[in-house]
Amino acid sequence: MFKKPHPSPAPAEDRTARVRFTGLSAGYPGRPVLRQLDAEIPALAVTALVGANGSGKSTLLGVLAGVIRPTAGEVHHTGDRPPAFVPQRGAVADALPLTVRQAVEMGRWGDRGPWRRLTRRDHTLVETTLERLGIGHLAARQLGELSGGQRQRALIAQGLTQQSDLLLLDEPTTGLDPEAREQIAALLTELVADGVTVVQATHDLEAARSADSCLLLRDGRLAGRGRPEQVITTEALSRLWQPA
Ligand code: ADP
């Protein structure tokens, strides 16, 4: 299904960084969340942001997406396209009267300005992406009628039609059955082979273990970084899930 331009990828830590941040602090008015983070997101790899609820994963995704401004520190992107942000499935109302095709077409709005008039190329891209994610046959269905795994694919398709080289996903496998979780993990690996850098916030440890690289957050601070087998250790986890 995918071309594989990188048949034998180098280990994640040998690749150049797609995003690098130093001394990064960020949060909400009156609520500091991220504190002094120094880390990088390796290019052409799947990076998992792991941590308990409230540890700051979504906030970090928001900073990477450019929707939350750091209160201190630097964030340096090496890509030239804005990142594509895929929100949590739960944040997309079930009752939203949108077909799968319409939801995916929304990914082209950013490039088409206020009138949102899609070109023939946009429509071709939407159809290709629907097929590529195996949801072409569902294009006319309402988003709210889909299974969790199918809806996640539709949201990822929307992200991919933004044609960014950096895809940010908030809890893409949470609440899915094991088979759908595995399929999403395999899809993310395929996207990397196809030239996309993927970051997923997750508290699904299986998803984190199948990533190339992990950043562990604990109460807004970096508690570990590196390959999953180095950072997702029993000891790290016992500390991670305890209150700070
Ligand atoms: P995670 O994704 O790891 O669950 P979040 O980044 O969503 O963590 O949240 C980190 C902290 O920031 C939590 O204490 C949460 O309550 C708080 N928070 C999240 N969003 C907002 C907001 N819009 N306004 C104020 N506080 C927020």
From TrEMBL:
Pfam families: ABC_tran (PF00005)
Gene3D superfamilies per record: P-loop containing nucleotide triphosphate hydrolases (3.40.50.300)
ABC transporter domain location: 19-244
Keyword Transport: yes
Keyword tags: ATP-binding, Nucleotide-binding, Transport
Molecular functions (GO terms): ATP binding
Keyword rRNA-binding applies: no
UniProt cross-references to InterPro entries, sorted A to Z: AAA+_ATPase, ABC_transporter-like_ATP-bd, ABC_transporter-like_CS, AztA-like, Metal_Ion_Import_ABC, P-loop_NTPase
Protein name: Zinc ABC transporter ATP-binding protein AztA
Organism (species): Streptomyces virens
Lineage: Bacteria, Bacillati, Actinomycetota, Actinomycetes, Kitasatosporales
